[in-house]
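Render YrdB family protein in 3D.
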Amino acid sequence: MKTAKAANLAALFLIELGAVGAAAYWGITLDVPTPLAWLLGLAAPAVLVVLWGLFGSPKAPYRTHGARRVGFEALWFGAGVAALLAAGAVGWAIALALLCAVSKSLAVRWGQ
């Protein structure tokens, strides 16, 4: 069981990276002039990283708990899924949503 819990924490970290990467992917795939696409490709994940640092990180100054935490994570990970959908990567969006739901459910069940 110890190994499964550790694997789930690793999966959660990879899912977090996936959400940030999805935001970058959305930005650079937009049908806009290249400099703007690159700007959005850098700004969108930066916004997610800052929000995670303020509200989601274990050392966050405004760490959320309880229902607020659930809402924050639903919106934060949902932003990654929405970015993939907006970029036309429907399969990846579904995969990210399913992985997030399963892994977060296990984390709650195991008190992680």
